[in-house]
Amino acid sequence: MNTDKKLLRTLTKGDILLAAVLILVSLVWFASSFASDEESLTLKIYLDGTESVSVSLASLSEEKHYTVGGCIICADSEGVCFEKSDCPDGLCIKRGRMTRAGDAMACVPERVVVRLYGSDDFDTLAY
Amino acid sequence: MKNKKRILKIVSLLLTCAVVLSAALIIRDRKKDFNSAEKSTVAMNTIMTQKIYSEVPGSQITDIITIVNVLEKMISFKDIDSQLSILNREGTLDNGAIADVLRVCTEISEKSGGVFDVTVGELSELWGIGTENENIPEAEEISSLLSECGYEKISINGSTVTFDGDFSVDLGAVGKGMACDYIMNYLMSSEGVNGGVVSVGGSIVVYGQRNKAGDKWRVAVRHPRNEGELLGVISLSEGFVSTSGDYERYFEENGKRYHHILDAESGYPCESGLISVTVVCDSGILSDALSTACFILGREKGEKLLSEYGAAGIFVDKDMNITTVGDIDFEY
Amino acid sequence: MKTDKLVKKVALLGIMGSLALVLGFLESIFIPDIPFLPVGAKPGLSNVVTMYTVSVTGLGGGIYITLIKAAFALITRGATASAMSLCGGLLSTVTVWLLMKKKDRLFSFVGIGISGALMHNLGQLTVACLISGTAALFGYGKYLIIFALVTGAVTGGMLTFVMPGIDRITKNKQYDKYDKEMKE
User: B55: which residues sit within 8 A by CB, 6+ positions away?
Assistant: First the structure.
């Protein structure tokens, strides 16, 4: 048989090394893209038009409370809602929880706006 | 071997070319974007979100907030010092802007056979939908208020508006669209603005270009039933988008939904079989008014009304059947 | 005799070329679109043929197979597919040839198969990005690396098993040129 014996050996050290390198590279690639888009929702809270809170929901391992103006806003890795407010109508609390990119809610009397930004493919939402 | 070295050189040359080309493409992709800034504020009792693409977007953003606040002061139904409230109290007013918008509204009232009517302000207050006072009024209360209303009772002479009856006009149905018109005028006359997209409580105005490639704007439409989902996305290069639906403000009693869009003929929330109407056209007031009017009229009459104004639209009925009318680029 | 060798070479190439086309054709019919990968991505079983041909006849034979596949793609699927096949195929064939040629060979057929598959995908992606004018397609890269790893290993493995049998059938004469190069 003329085919080189080395070629016929099923796996060489080089093969294993190559496979390992490739798996590593693709894992790193996956990890970086996962962290930057996919589920990455950014929460922004504005008071009177000025941004006062900006945080990535994914970074919240547990519930976190933000006090902005006269409102207490509760956020976790999945979504955000108004928990308490000094406003007379409580409509903001009644609005409930918000989980999707592009969504927004506000406490009008307190002039607080809460928005979720994501990697969604549209410029604005008509409703 | 010489041969091998040559091949190696060629291969590495090819690879380098591939890498360089890809890098060039990536850089080119990035450079497609203009400078821009975004801001969300509370305006006109709702959320206004703007993204302006220009060299110095900050000044435009501030200007737009001012414009909308000034407009709000003029047409606010609740504010007793607003020009609109003065008109509602005194029964007459000389104001060009209000005269213009009422002219459009009465025209649409006429064309819709009176089901769309901004003179039912007090009736809306009676229903109180979306506030703590929401309730089902007595039939007598409704009919007595209705008898006072009527778009025919508005006379407009140049910039003077006169009411011939005891009713109040609520511009809530078209106020946001009006703001969008003002914003469009501002953006068109402002220096150095490449493009902009503003949402005033869900009424949208898009102007100019969002990037150097001239990609169209993508305006998503909320799904009328499934929270957090989209109905679809409209692609347009410039214009106004408004949506009316039975899901924005409503309450339910005895398994029936009472939403905030009243049929001015009956005095009750309309029952046209539609749950959402979206209109795209070249005027903000029109897109707001038409979306409300078509929602009340139903699909058949709504389609006719839209074609009279050369507008396009999306109708969604109770069974989630989606129909598009006119020249519109909607993916769903 | 020289003509004897040439005739055998031509015959071999003829068979290999058709085999490559048949494998490619069967792939396109029976393999559905794979999730996360661009539409039309296939395991590339015909690379077994290319690898075998290169090991027996050297670079020239391998390029011949590549050209045949690209021409077939041009006729059946159009210019875009052909360009992608050609670029990916050339890059892959040259890489395979280099790896098989090296005196201190790093890889077995499995490693060579993986490398060939990787380069093939890289070539195709590059052409696709150039044609569509956007670099966004390179985002598929993370999935394609794994895909190339798997399919390359499979084709390499297949060749490993099949090689002894083919050796016995074709006997040694085709290897003369290759063996001579190896000794240098």
Answer: B35, B192
A42-117, which class in CATH?
Answer: mainly beta
Which CA distances in Å does B166 have to B108, B119, B148, B151? 21, 10, 6, 12
- How close A116 comes to chain B (CA, Å)? 11
Q: How confident is the model at residue A2 (pLDDT cuts 50, 70, 90)?
A: very low
C73-105 in b/e form (b: 16+ CB < 10 A) is bbeeeeeebbbbbbbbbbbbbbbbbbbbbeeeb
The gap from C-alpha B168 to its chain's centroid, in whole angstroms, comes to 23
Strand (E) or helix (H) holding B244: strand B239-245
- CA gyration radius, chain C: 16
Which tokens in the block code for residue C161?
């098993």
pLDDT in tens, B173-214: 899 999 999 999 999 999 889 999 999 999 999 999 988 878
Instruction: Give pLDDT, residue C182.
Output: 55
Residue linked to tokens 């020009």: B83
- Give the integer Cα–Cα distance in Å for B281 and B242: 9
Domain C2-175, architecture per CATH: Orthogonal Bundle (1.10)
The domains of chain B are located at 36-331
* Among the four given CATH numbers 3.40.50.720, 3.10.520.10, 1.10.10.10, 3.40.30.10, the one describing domain B36-331: 3.10.520.10
Give which of A16, A17, A21, A26 to mutate to test C binding, by max C Cβ within 10 Å: A26
pTM for the structure as a whole: 0.62
Say whether C98 and B28 touch across the interface (CB within 8 A): no
CB B151 within 8 A of CB B118: yes
Find the angle CA(B204)-CA(B36)-CA(A30) to the nearest 5 degrees.
100
CB hemisphere CA count around B110 (13 angstroms): 10
Separation between Cα atoms, residue B220 and residue B332, nearest integer Å: 10
Nearest to B218 among A100, A111, A121 (CB): A121
Q: Is residue B230 classed exposed, middle or buried when 0-12, 13-18 and 19+ CB atoms within 10 A define those classes?
A: middle
CA angle (B45 as vertex; B72, B70 as ends), nearest 5: 20
Q: Which among B224, B219, B188 is positioned nearest to B204, based on CA atoms?
A: B219
Residues 6+ apart with CB under 8 A from C48: C23, C113, C155, C158, C159, C162
Residues of chain B with pLDDT below 70 are: 1-5, 7-8, 10-11, 21-32
Kindly give, in sequence order, each residue whose CB lies less than 8 Å from that of residue B40, ignoring residues fewer than 6 positions away: A44, A46, A49, A104, A113, A115, B47, B48, B49, B50
What is the rounded distance in angstroms from the CA atom of residue C107 to the CA atom of residue C157? 12
Distance between CA atoms of B203 and A124, rounded to whole angstroms? 10
SS3 for B192-230 is CEEEEEEEECCEEEEEECCECCCCCEEEEEECCCCCCCE
Q: Is B13 on the interface with C (CB under 8 A)?
A: no
**A19 contacts C146? CB cut-off 8 A:** no
Q: Which of C33, C10, C14 is nearest to C22 (CA)?
A: C14
DSSP string, A32-44: HHHHHSTT--EEE
